[in-house]
Design brief:
- By secondary structure, this protein is of the alpha+beta class.
- The protein is 29% helix and 23% strand.
- Strands 1-2 form a two-stranded antiparallel ribbon.
Amino acid sequence: LPDNTEVAIVTFNTEAIVTHNLTHLSSVRVRARLADTIPDSQNRLSRSDDRCVICGVKVAMDQVLRNREAGSHLIIVTRGDKRTLSEDDEAIISEYDKYHNVRVSSVLLPMSGHAPSLAFYN
C-alpha cells in the first residue's frame, strides 16, 4: 500500500471488534506495528467456526469510518460458504456501496476440500 494510506483492522467471527483503529502508514515502524495486529488464527474471537461478515462490515462502517465512508475500500478476508453471507447481508453491503461510495473486495481463504460457493465473492 502507498505511504500515508489509512488502514484499520476489524476482526470478526460470531461478533466483530476493531483490532486496530485507522492508522496512517507513514513509516516502516508503523507498518510493522500494524502487521503485528493481523490475526494469525481464524479463531481469534472464539473457537466457533461460525462467521458473520456483515458484523465486521457494520463495525467497520460504524466504528472505524464514522462519516468518512466515501471513497473507502473494505477488504474482507474470510472463508466463503453458505454460512458466511446471506442474501440480506449482500443487499446491505450493496447499499453501503451505493449510498456511501464504499468499494468492497474479498480475499477467500480456501476450506479443505471445498471450492468457494458464494456468487457474491466471484
